[in-house]
Amino acid sequence: MTEHSTKKSPSPVPRILIVDDEEKMRHLLSIMLERKGYAVSQAGDGEEALDILDQQTFDMIISDIKMPRMDGTELLEKIKEMQIAVPLVFITAFATIDSAVDAMRQGAADYITKPFEESRILLTLERTLHLSRVMSENRELRQQLQNAQQQDELIYTSNAMKSLMELAERVAQTDSAVLICGESGTGKELLAKYIHRMSSRRDKRFVPVNCAAISAGLVESELFGHEKGAFTGADRKAEGKFEYASGGSLFLDEIGDLPLEAQAKMLRALQEKRIQRVGGNREIPVDVRFICATNRKLNQRVDTGDFREDLYYRINVFPLQPPPLRERREDILPLCEYFLQRMGASSMKPDESAVRILTKYDWPGNVRELANAVERAVILAGNSRKISGDIFSFLNTGERVSQTPGEFRLPPEGIMLEELEQDLVRQALEMSNDNQSAAAKLLGLTRAKFRVLLKQI
To answer: Is there a single domain that holds both residue 180 and residue 227?
Structure first.
């Protein structure tokens, strides 16, 4: 990183729209504000202001109340109807101050009385522009939240997924424990989030915990919290995930990896809805909805003694099993379109050869593997903006061409020979840093024959 990259870009100049039917008043305010560095536009009444707002954005509006055609209060109503997020400040004479107060009740940010002092206007501007920045930040946060929720979408058209989602919606209306079983990458956490969003706890926290990612010595502290001095390094009291999730949903992913010692405490928390922090004696009530997930066969772990039978039956009240992607192939293309849109590459469409590969591949990594494959394909396609079948050559169980002649096996679905040749030419160029002689040597070709293939790309 160069030192220039650490410099902050200058803040944008605040843009202010002045709306007043008196030209002298508009001119006076414009001079005053432009002298302070603001960018100013003018409108003679509410209708002209709306025309300008249709073309430009502003950080603030200063408007008179009494104007012909459309007055200030009508302008405020229109801005609210059109959902234009900009604060409006009224200028009013003492005789109409009651109108200004009424307007503030309707949503105006402030008002200034005539005759006004420059210091009063500048102070009001500073306060209102701060409000404008807060409104802008709130819009950005709402957009980020919406984007995050969109990334949590479950995309499907298959009957198998429709049946699963109907069951998920039904159990979401209860507080029953849910156990989601299935292969890695099938969307177990997304399903858990969906159950939470559809439940009465939707306004409370959804707290995910990956039981496999916590070291055995810290599991109980992570889940139940600890008191100060409970162990070396516990220099303060800390609440665990149970307390943090109270009122909401606790999602315990990979619960099959939970140590036996923690399983006993987990069972007690489920049964009694109370916990004890590590090193503490006080019982703390918790109100959480339990959603667990595993890619292991828990009944087999029960048989081997690695998972408590009583805990298994406690969490397995309502089992759900997302089908693997190979069992819902009709969802592959809608998922591809969704991932392309999420990456800002919605104009890129897989061609027929790519569709054939995508729909015939078994996807051992399921939806997660598909998402990664689509992202990799977009990168490989580069500026060509074309996703052809040869780009997905990395999905085969081995390399398409072996180093030893005769070891290549034609797959049952067949290949596109021309696309395979083009793919090999590209790979050879990448491996040789665009040295055509070296690339030809990698393919066992003369440089002349290699250049013939290169022209076909």
So the answer is: yes
Range of the domain at 424: 329-455
Instruction: Give me the residues paired with residue 238 across strands.
Output: 226
pTM value is: 0.57
Nearest residue to 199 via CA among 289, 285, 273: 289
Position 256 in a domain: yes
Cβ partners under 8 Å of residue 201, min gap 6: 247, 248, 249, 289
Q: Residue 291's closest CA among 413, 205, 417, 387?
A: 205
Does 203 lie in the same domain as 142? no
Peptide bond into 411 cis (omega under 30): no
In a domain, 3, yes or no: no
Answer with the one of 320, 354, 389 that is the final residue of a domain.
Answer: 320
Q: What is the pLDDT of residue 444?
A: 80
Residue 60, strand partner residues: 16
> Which helix (H) or strand (E) element contains residue 318?
strand 318-320
Helix (H) or strand (E) holding 141: helix 118-151
Cα end-to-end span (Å), the chain: 37
Q: Are 180 and 321 in contact (CB under 8 A)?
A: yes
Q: Tell me: the pLDDT tens digits for 238-280?
A: 888 999 999 999 999 999 989 888 899 899 999 999 988 888 8
